[in-house]
Amino acid sequence: MADDREVLREVWEGRIPACFDLSPDEVTSVETPDPYFLLLPRLSYLTLVTEKVQRHFKKYRESVDTDEIWFDFEGQPLKWHYPVGVLYDLLASSGTLPWKLTVHFKSYPEQEILHCRDKEVIEAHYMSCVKEADVLKHRGIVINNMQRRDHKQLWSGLQNGNQFSHRNLY
Question: Which of 43, 39, 38 is nearest to 8 (CA)?
């Protein structure tokens, strides 16, 4: 059992260094924007860092006529509903670090990625994935025995990178 906890800890602590650059087509200021660097938790979602990224690039772009924020890697739009670690492993694991991502506020690629307007959408997707995994592994017993506050604790643990809030629930 100790080995399982060590593996779980390593998975939770996994981070991917990322460099966010604003798309050159969207820069409206005279000065060139500085890149924004973050350590992204492998188990998290890109859309959970959008507020930080938006704040960083706010002064370099006009806030008028913007779609929702989206990211690409080497021209490939990134699907927000895939965990960061999955995206990185599928698209960039053979590349160099930091993972260079381009930030867009316009021309949302509706034909390639789903819309995600707020954190409630991410939370609903995450809980759906957890329920699906529980059905496959435990025939739905764990999730069905949880209360609403337990669901919120799971979501909060993911947002804050807190493995203990997950481990205490099952």
Answer: 43
136: phi then psi, degrees, rounded to nearest 5: -70, -40
Q: Which two tokens stand for residue 149?
A: 């506050």
3-state secondary structure of 137: helix
Please tell me whether the overall predicted TM-score, pTM, comes out greater than 0.85 for this model: no
Q: How crowded is the C-beta side of 45, counted as CA atoms within 13 Å? A: 23
3-state DSSP call for residue 20? Answer: strand
- Alpha-carbon distance 49 to 35, whole Å? 15
Dihedral pair phi/psi, residue 29, rounded to 5°: -95, 165
Query: CB neighbours (10 Å) of residue 144?
Result: 11
From residue 80, give the alpha-carbon distance in Å to each of 32, 62, 64, 112: 27, 24, 23, 11
Buried b (16+ CB within 10 A) or exposed e, 98-127: bbebbbbbeebeeeebeebeebeebbebbb
Q: Which residues of the chain have pLDDT under 70?
A: 1-3, 63-67, 160-170
